[in-house]
Amino acid sequence: MAEINQLQDAIIEDITAFDDWMDRYAYIIDLGNSLEPIAEEKKTPQNLIEGCQSRVWLDAELKPDGRLYFEADSDAIIVKGIIAMLLQVLSGQRPADILAADLYFIDRIGLSSHLSPTRSNGLLAMVKQIKAYAIAFEAKSSNQNL
Q: Could you list the active site residues?
């Protein structure tokens, strides 16, 4: 859990270094551009996040180390940057830690207040889908340990 908070703090530090929101958006877009593209075969209706205005695909895999790794992509540059921030914080974490995480960085960087209502809904849908994967993989690993 401490690792998740350290990752959030790093994002807060990076983004709040910019006073101007145009610079912050540019930084978020750069994060999105640095996101590894998701394989075309994973751009399926099952991986499409419901509730986003733009198209966002999210896939997850639980690796043998017990950590959940995500891949994502979007057809909108700002949204791609937002999902990149979420993955920077949550990809590679244990499902239980993802579920327990308080994603405070979203409010601390002021993102919520600078998104349109539809983009805010999309952000909530992305977080909800990441947590849904964590719930599913946590339940699956609990059942295997019985």
A: 52
Whichever domain contains 14, its CATH number is: 3.90.1010.10
> Could you give the CA distance from residue 12 to residue 105 in angstroms, rounded to a whole number?
6
What does the pLDDT look like over 116-136, one tens digit per residue? Answer: 888 888 899 999 999 999 999
Residue 22 has pLDDT above 60, yes or no: yes
**In the Cβ-directed half-sphere of 104, how many Cα atoms lie within 13 Å?**
12
Q: What residue numbers bound the domain in which 66 lies?
A: 2-144
- pLDDT (average), residues 102-109: 94
Q: Which two tokens stand for residue 14?
A: 């990076």
Tally the domains of the chain. Answer: 1
Q: What pLDDT, on the 0 to 100 scale, is given for residue 112?
A: 82
